Protein: histidine kinase
Amino acid sequence: MVRALIGLLMLLMALPVFADKRDLYVGVLGNWGYQQAIERWSPLMQYLSEQVPGTQFHVYPGEFEELNRAMASGKIQFIVTNPGQYLFLSNQYPLSWLATMRSRRHNGATSAIGSAIIVRADSDYRTLYDLKGKSIVASGPHALGGYQATVGLMQKRGMDPQHFFKQIKFLGFPLDPLLYQVRDGNVDAAITPLCTLEDMVAKGVINEKDFRVLNPSRPAGFDCQCSTKLYPNWSFAVIEGVDTQITKQVTQALMGISAEHPAAIKAQFMGWTSPVSQLGVIQLFSELQVESSKPNYWSVILGWLGENRYWGVFAILLFVVATIYHLWIEYRFHQKSESLVESERQLKRQEVALEKLQSTAIIGEIGAGLAHEINQPIAAITSYSEGAKMRLQRQQQLDIPDILLLLDKIHSQSKRAGEVVHRIRSLLKRREAVMEDVNILTLVDESLSLLKLELEQRDIQIKTHFKGEPFFITGDRVGLLQVLINLIKNSVDALSDAEFKGKGMIEIGMHFKAEQVDLSIKDNGPGLSEEFATLLATFYTTKANGLGLGLAICQEVVNEHEGVLLLANNTDERGCKAQISLKKRGSQSPVVA
Structure:
């Protein structure tokens, strides 16, 4: 009986302790949905409740705006979020960092937030510049890894994020729909937090081969591709007003949790460390929030005149005198220039007459050039049409897709022949080449596509690679395509020579430098038999059926682009190497061979 009374007394004494437990709520970002956030962070809440007597911690999942409102209304006392939202909230509420999370996935790294810019693998987008005027999706405008890191990257490269894209859609959380939109072709690209692609591939909801990451990099110790620099990881913060003793106990509990604790495994961290520096995020935010305020020059001038009235009167008089003198000089110049204008008109008429004589003199050369250039597309059309005819003769039932593919190739070659004719006509009429933004990577793909059948027939292997960050050049797309096809065709002809024995291979490399791009075409054929200067001479050829115009035309087109064309034998191996060096778009520096 005595023992029962003692037990009952102890139970009655413990009841107030349980009754007085304080409920504390921790806001967490629900990147993959609220239910997933609750499952991920609930074990840590239970751990904190055990470590801090008299408290019961709860998960409060939400998106950025929901967590902002929850903090404003006092519904949450703690928050686990990225540094971007912390800096945004700290400008409105008194927050303090307690600890920074060490990522389990990235070997305990404390900087594990960045963006991955993802496109379809079969798209033509290879650089961030290719997305100009395109539609993209992101999780939200305040997402550090889901949007703001990419905006910072764009500003460093001189892009205007507000006007660069055609449309930006913010889909919020969860993150899955971002890649579904890209996969289904509804948008051109998605800006996602680091490891979103890899996580969805691991869950089996998408195929990794369907996607490609732009501006890819893989930091040491990471198994995910990233497009931007990395920023500090998620941190645990507390709002002012929470009891200091509780805050101290929470900090000690976070620092003391081991990497093998079930709560750490479930929440995907290896532990917590002292808050890391947020300087990188602060610099990013300051760059994003800089507003270019133009000064009111008129107010500045009036203020200066008010403070320096005498000098102001003198400046106005000087301006009036200078204006009168300028008008007098203009009048005298107009009187003297009439005779000069008439002389210029006569010189212009003589120049036009001389131009006509020169055009007449080179008609023969242009005609030969037309025959040389148009021979390639005509030969390709003949080959495709013969192939179609043979397939029709062999098959009783038509293979419509194959026939349509051959017709598309014939149509492409006919358009190419037309472009050559127009280019020769523009040369005869002395018209300027059409200069526009040109993607060298796409141009190489088009050249190989036009020569695909011939390369397959002659069993020639093609290798392409590039070094550096790709960029656009300003050039005549048709002319440059003509140059690439000529140089690749020269390598094909060399590998098809009767004296060449072995497996033919052509290697196309692109080296993107600071102010120029060097494009090289190497083959393992017999090499050059003459000097480069000799081969450039018009009507000089080493081929039995050649006209001697291919390299001369290539040299002329490259010169129009202020570039450099070189041709030489490989020094360390057999074969020949042709190299074209062209300026980067907007560059004023001369090309260095």
In short: Residues 51 and 253 are 6 Å apart (CA to CA). The mean pLDDT is 80. The domain at 17-108+234-290 is CATH 3.40.190.10 (D-Maltodextrin-Binding Protein; domain 2). The longest strand covers residues 95-103.
